[in-house]
Amino acid sequence: MGRSSIADSVLDVMSPNEDDADDEEGFSTISLRINTSVHISSNNNLVCLNDTPASHANAIARAVVQAIQENSSGQCGIPMIDEDGRPRPVKIEVDAGITVEGSGNIVGNENVVNQVLRMRSLARKRSADDDESDTPARLPKRRREESGSSGSSNNSP
Question: Would you list the domain boundaries of the chain?
Fold first, then answer.
């Protein structure tokens, strides 16, 4: 059997069991808690996200594991074993959830946001056009024809 990698250790720690908590009491655990959650409140918000919360959390966890590997004791960084030579457990918690409160809120990627903006723009234009058609059009004022000043053929003898 080969040695397990840090990534495998992290994945084992990320699926916690209640028994594991008792086993780790004597160890010098490396614990990280990262909160990148998004809380949207009020109404009619338009929020653009590049990734889903799950893929965002996975990207963060991968970046942390990579940073730990690159900065391990072999690289003169974080010691991954304790004073007795036992591997140090790594606990990573990533909260990347989304909470939306209110009405009319739109959350999506750039394409979704652009589509919503186009639809809202068209709706506003239509509304403005409808408002213009509801108001009576002003007719140009007619000039009164004065009987003495115009050379009208109606008044000729």
Answer: 6-43+51-104
